[in-house]
Design brief:
The protein is α+β, with helices and mostly antiparallel strands. It has helices at residues 61-82, 86-99, 104-116, 120-132, 137-153, 157-170, 174-180, 203-218, 229-237; strands at residues 25-31, 57-58, 189-191, 195-196, 198-200, 246-251, 261-268, 274-282, 290-298, 302-317, 333-350, 355-365, 376-380, 383-388, 391-396.
């Protein structure tokens, strides 16, 4: 999607700005899954939605044969990496991926071979993909560490520090600690760069502004504009009655996996114009889909909380959701769509400047410990405090 690589797990998010401050909150949940009907964008407070997920099933004979080929290719790739035959390693991991497409472990190890070869661009592509596709905390820690090496190789010091901190937080190691010696160990991305909103006269024009954001963030072609203002409102957020703020979604995320989407917060200015804040966007999700929750809280400033969880089809142990690493007996593994990685973000928006003043992003893998955010973000009286996860930061929003 979609993100500058200095922001490890951040979603591809376009600029945001603020709305007039007041009390109350609105929550919206958008979900996609290959096995359920088109989800609903709900503006009901505290709405909770749980996506249907395909059940586990035993491996077929063909899948068992693929797993055997995968194991042989992985062993070949590891030996080639150890002997510094990086071309041979990549070819072997390619063969492993032919047998088990989208396997995060094979993608990760191919990425590591490319790190050693200093092929930074392809290494980054592999490691980013592996990070999105695994629920194994130890594997994800290894991926983060290697992402840190890529950032080091490219001279991206702050990004490298963040990756090493996340690796050490998930699975402490001497290598990660050595990289962090004498440096802050906060696992959250903290961005204070300002970002402006779009302001338009009416809902009809809002579609054009959102379409530009959609194309820029996803690289895709936005959907065609409906013929009337009422049709625009209905398509974006089921009517968007009142002054808002409203959650609006453009694209296929409302209908299931396979398409790009962009999400926005929309509200009125005192002179009745519409202010449009892009809050998150993504290219087409995988076959298993994604879930997203978006919540707007109106207080001293506008706070938008976004949580996204990715699902991936993978082999897991039949007695739980722990991933199979390819070494288990065939009958111990089943094929299933399971939660892998997630990200949480808090956007703080200034009500007078119509600009984002702070973005805090954090995420990780979904493993047996659950989906627990490492950093804690609280806002009281215009002061944001970020604690836990190696963080100890305060920012004034005044």
């Amino acid at each position: 999607m979609r993100h500058a690589h200095a922001h490890a797990l951040a979603l591809a998010l376009a600029p945001l700005a603020a709305l007039p401050a007041c009390k109350g909150r609105e929550k919206a949940t958008v979900e996609t899954s290959p096995s359920c009907s088109p989800p609903i964008v709900s503006a009901a407070p505290d709405a909770e939605k749980t996506p249907e997920r395909p059940g586990k099933r035993p491996l077929t004979d063909a899948e068992k044969a693929d797993l055997s080929r995968y194991r042989e290719a992985m062993e070949r790739g590891r030996k080639a990496t150890q002997s510094r035959d990086f071309r041979g390693a990549v070819e072997a991991f390619d063969a492993a991926l032919a047998a088990r497409p989208a396997d995060a472990r094979a993608i990760s190890e191919r990425g590591y071979a490319r790190v050693l070869a200093k092929d930074w661009a392809l290494a980054r592509e592999d490691l980013d993909r592996a990070a999105r596709g695994t629920s194994d905390a130890k594997l994800l820690a290894s991926v983060y560490f290697n992402q840190g090496l890529v950032s080091e190789g490219l001279g991206e010091g702050p990004a490298a520090k963040l990756y090493f901190a996340r690796a050490n937080q998930l699975s402490p190691s001497k290598a990660a600690k050595d990289k962090l010696e004498g440096k802050p160990q906060c696992v959250a991305t903290i961005d204070r760069a300002p970002a402006r909103a779009d302001v338009v006269a009416d809902w009809f024009l809002s579609w054009d502004a959102m379409a530009k954001r959609f194309a820029r963030a996803t690289g895709g072609t936005p959907p065609a504009r409906p013929p009337t203002e009422d049709a625009v409102r209905k398509e974006l957020c089921d009517g968007c009655s009142g002054d808002g703020p409203h959650i609006a979604v453009m694209g296929d995320a409302k209908g299931g996996p396979g398409g790009a989407y962009a999400a926005f917060v929309v509200s009125r200015t005192p002179d009745r114009r519409l202010v449009i804040f892009a809050i998150d966007a993504a290219g087409p999700p995988g076959i298993c889909g994604v879930t997203q929750e978006r919540e707007v809280t109106k207080g001293h400033v506008l706070r938008v909380h976004v949580r996204r969880e990715e699902l991936a089809r993978t082999l897991v142990k039949k007695d739980g959701d722990r991933p199979c690493d390819g070494s288990e007996p065939f009958d111990d593994c089943v094929n299933a769509c399971v939660a892998t990685s997630w990200v949480e973000e808090d956007w703080f928006l200034d009500a007078t400047k119509l600009a984002r003043v702070l973005l805090v992003s954090d995420g990780g893998s979904t493993d047996e410990a659950g989906k627990k955010r490492a950093s804690i973000v609280n806002e009281t009286g215009g002061v944001v405090e970020i604690t836990s996860g190696g963080c100890n930061e305060k920012f004034s929003l005044k």
